[in-house]
Design a protein that fits this description.
Layout lengths: L1 H17 L2 E7 L9 E5 L5 E6 L5 E4 L6 E7 L6 E6 L6 E5 L4 E4 L2 E4 L4 E5 L2 E5 L10 H6 L4 E4 L2 E4 L5 E5 L2 E2 L4 H9 L6 E7 L12 E7 L6 E12 L3 E13 L2 E24 L4 E28 L2 E26 L5 E27 L4 E25 L6 E25 L3 E24 L2 E4 L5 E20 L2 E18 L4 E19 L5 E11 L10 E5 L2 E4 L7 E12 L2 E11 L2 E8 L4 E8 L2 E16 L2 E17 L5 E18 L6 E10 L2 E3 L2 E3 L2 E12 L4 E8 L7 E7 L2 E8 L4 E11 L13 H4 L2
Parallel strand pairs: 1-7, 14-17, 33-37
Antiparallel strand pairs: 1-4, 2-3, 2-5, 5-6, 8-9, 10-11, 11-16, 12-13, 14-15, 16-17, 18-19, 18-48, 19-20, 20-21, 20-47, 21-22, 22-23, 23-24, 24-25, 25-26, 26-27, 26-28, 28-29, 29-30, 30-31, 31-34, 32-33, 34-35, 35-38, 36-37, 38-39, 39-40, 40-41, 41-44, 42-43, 43-46, 44-45, 45-48, 46-47
Length: 790
Amino acid sequence: MNKILLFLCFPMLMFAQKQKLAGTVTNTENEKLSAVNVGFYNSGNELIKELKTDGKGGFVLEGLSEQNVKLVVKREGYLVFEKNLNLESSEPLQIILKKEDAKEIEEVVMTKRKPLVKRKVDRLEFNVENSNISSLNAWEILKNTPNVSVNNSVLTVKGSTGILVTINDKKVMLTGDELKNLLENTQGDDVKSIEVITNPPAKYEAAGSAVLNIVMKKNKIEGYRGILSSKYVQTQYAKAVFGLSQYYKKDKLSVMASYYKGMGTYYREGFDYVNYPESQTKWMSTMNRKDKNYNQNTLNFNVEYELDSLTNLSLNYSGYFSPKSYGIYDVPTLIYNNQDIVESNYRTLNDHESRSANNSVSFQIDRKLNKKSSLSWINYFTGNNSSKHQDVATHLNFAGELPREDHFLTQNKADVKLFSTQLDYQWKNEKWELESGTKYSFVKTNSTLKFSDNENGELQYRPEKSSIFDYKEHNFALYTSLAYNIGKWNFKGGLRAEMTDLEGVVSEPYDLNKSNYWNFFPTFYAQYTTENKHEFGFSYGKRISRPSYSWLNPAKSYYNLFSYFQGDPQLKATIIHNLNLTYSWKNWNLDLYYRKELYPSMEISYQVPENNNVVYHFTNIEKGQAYGLSLYKNFQIKPWWNIIISENLEHNENYFNGVDGLLHQNKVWNLDSNISTSFTLDKSSDWKMEVGHRYFSGGVQGPFRISSTWNAYFVMNRKFFNKKLEAALVVTDIFRTTGQKVATKYANQDNYFLDYTDTQGFSLSLKFNFGNQSVKNAKTIKKTSEQDRL
């Protein structure tokens, strides 16, 4: 009987198998779209079944008796997709949705987009392509990125300063002013998006509490084109940038090359206050620092070649060269007694000159193994060479002493070389995605300090104040991560293991620091999307922040006769635990986070009353922790009017051991706010304007308490002559309100400094596009034999 029933049902079972149809819905950027409505209609245009795509954009149709149906795919913000289907065909559907404001040019879709924040399971993606802020440079774009703040030229993500900056997922071996200069000379038109990764997945190296990945555009236009640009900046003094970018694409070859030259005078105002209760004196210094740099060079070169339809090769070079930056600082200091009367004074003249050169080369091979898996091999080398020479003369006029002059010379040189090689494997299907790989890196640094001072009117080399510091670090890593997407849920978890072998050698006095250790860094992510597109997320990640190589150098680098900087070769790496809860809905993005840091390393200062010195020292404090709430919302008031609100409220605590041997706590509630409104002033979207306001309520860093600051800015840009010419006006720090006070006050420590980095001013920029600026003769690319074999 069972056999008969099976025999009778067999044709139905066979037909049911033919009715199973799978499909994937993506947009024109090949991004898979989840929670998309997929409807099926019969010949009478009646709805017979409706589905929603899963987290990977996929859907599966089963159980329909009709053979000919109409497919209708709808998603807000996209054009409706319709297609008549024959369900006897088992071929999977590849559905591409086009945005409502898309303009199709011969089978290629060009889309105008405003800044868009997209929440992914492991990161926040900020798209800036074709937006108002694309006329800015990469540094200014970072200031406008959600969860990112720039305070006194220091990048922070949700209050954390341990940031790893990458460009196209490749580490940038620059810090401080060098990184800022590089990004200031990187044009916003070359930036596609900024990825804010607060809990980086296992694929990324574990260094840094967060990763900022700058994704650069790829050249998609056939033929030759170029961009000629110039920019004039006026603050206290003038600066300028000139550049040329060139692009060429033909068949399988794509080449990009750019060169930017910057020049100008850089100004910084400061005031130092130190109170010595032991001697009942107050030392006050005025520092107006002016540096000239007329030769800053930024070069980029990238070539990509499609060896076959399965294999892509890419070679990238980037360089930054500043052969000469120089200036003379004139710093008068007045010393007051306990009756606030000037009893002594001295004056410091610091004549200095510095240079720096950075070269980075990477080579990458990407190979598709089959339809589900691929392999990437990346090799990377970077070299950073810098030197600084200073000639410091101090004229002293102390009470009870004859006037005298002290004179010393220092020569600092640093050479950093890094090599890394990484192999990544990826496999994925509709629900699962596996990533696994290994990486090896080697760093070698050499830092030399030569110190000479005057004796009997002649300069003498002082070996006891000079130093040679050599540092080597090997790092080997293995990682694996697994992602699973089922309906409304997305999961991802991973584990990274890193072995670090380091050796630091100091010449005088001789000191050897060797260490070898393994660390394990787990990550986990979960995301749930409701029927109404509410997205809830959770993530945890463990990270490590290794001290900068310059922080490990114990040599005393003198700023003047009474102040110097000193590193510590025994600095510990900081272990960081990040916990995040996220919510997103209709451009609302909310983050609730907690961060714990064990032995965070940072620069602190302390005064030494025995010799009236102020020492700036890199060290580990006991611990730090912070919890906070971040909010980002893009309000589209009108098609031509947009308002963005970005807020971060945080409670931050630092615990440090003071010079008195006691454990101190420094804590503060901090609000970091960025509110801006932008307008499109014409129908063709060629004329745009933005006004914004940034506010920072103050923070802490070890023993430092940092005062509040705010900044109002204005941006306007317009395109002319069929978009071939673009002009932009940017006004920053309109009310000159970005100065800050950084104070230390506990036990016998009582000092502060006021700092203003000369940000009030305006810039005018022009860009001229020439060559082929449009997509022509675009054709569908036929699959080659290699792809057919997959």
